Amino acid sequence: MVTQKHSLSTSLSVPADMRFLKMVQGYILKMSDIAGLSNLEGQRLELAAEEAFMNILEHAYPDGNPGAVFIKTEVSETELNLSIRDEGLPFDKSLESYPEPATEIEFIEEGLGFRLIRNAVDEAHFENLGRRGKVLRLIKYLNESFKPDHGEISQMMEAAPPQQYKIRPMDPDEAIQVAQLFWVAYGYSYKNEDFYRPEGLVHLIGSGRLISYVAVAENGDVAGHVGLLKYKNVPMAEEALLVVSPVHRGRRIMDLLHDAIQAKAKEMELKGVSVDPVTSHIISQRRIIQLGGRPCSLDLAACPPRVFKGIINEKEKPQRESYLHCFNYLTPISPLVVHVPSHHEEMISKIYQNLGQQFVFENPGIGKLPGDFQINFDKSLKKGEIKVITANENQWSEILRVADDLAEFAGAEVVVLDLPLAQRASAILCELAEEEGFFFSGIRPCESFDGDYLRLQRLHVPLDLSKLNIYSQLGQELFEYVSNCRSKVL
Fold first, then answer.
1. Above 70 in pLDDT, residue 2?
2. What is the pLDDT of residues 191-216, one digit of tens each?
3. Are 399 and 386 in contact (CB under 8 A)?
4. Domain boundaries 336-489, corresponding CATH code
5. How far apart, in whole angstroms, are the C-alpha atoms of residue 303 and residue 386?
């Protein structure tokens, strides 16, 4: 494994077996060379690592069941840090003679092997790590400053020449190019693994779940992609899977793909299309809103961090990605009847007015039909969803049990609860959910079989809302409202 941050870090894991000694020696010599050590310094470090490795082979696994040896090298601007860890027998059978953490080795043992190790480096430390075993840390100062190469793909690629692009449905043999586009843009961090497998994309299209359009350059290369994800029994679809090749950006390809997929949705007589631009940057939100999308929900912590290549923040660990859910009506909809607790009426009125949708609030009431709901857990997203089909306040205890189980046993980091706004008992269920830590996050037009959903969420991981970037006045108002609702249940 290799990572590039402010230093260059590599690791090697091998069985505690004499047959792997040459591999360890080669690894140490190569890293010494990369760090800029002289041949003599590299040989001394390799000898120290060999002595440590042999000591593990001889003493760490007396039960005859050798484990692994974990070797890690980190080269910073001024020094090379080498750690050699095993999960075998602790340093000494006597608890009284265990060294304190970071104790200098020369004060632990005066044997020849330890002196060889100590003389090969500038610092040597030993630590017992409890259940993680024990580790020997060796530090060698560098004579010359080491600067890792942080080249980025976006900088290595030259822009394609100006040209015209053809927008059309994807051919099956172009699926491999689409998968490669996702890797160029996201690495392997995109939420759905199918989009990295050509056969996965072709299967989604063949099953009718996905309609896929591509932008094709004059030389036949796929320069961009957009998809329309369809759902069963609802008159809407989601515009998603939008990606544009770095060498073809800045040519309105996103607009061309958007127009084509919207036209396809109208041809299918869908009532509307949703889009989920990320909140980690504003550009995609702004363009979606300019193209007709209207903010109606803030889907917090919706998926694991999506790391765009070339936009990596090295100073802090990325948090789960959130979406500003937008919707665009394609055909006029009859006025809606909406059932929500009175304290949410003002915010929902603003959302519907911005959507251009007529509505009327009606008083809550008890459910007339037996309650029913669907459960979904996405392991890759670590996200649980509970969608109420028929609302009945008597089903709340069962819904709550499922929500708790999704977090505790399935490992969901976020659980969403969707309540059908057209049904009277949804307002009662909403208040019961808010008493148990769920908070309002907006509405989801046309996602229920009888209208719209009210979405509530409960988070089980930390989320810093100050890191979200929100575009548009209504988007900001929705953000502040959701933030206030969340703060009341923390």
1. no
2. 566 666 778 788 888 889 999 999 99
3. yes
4. 3.40.630
5. 16
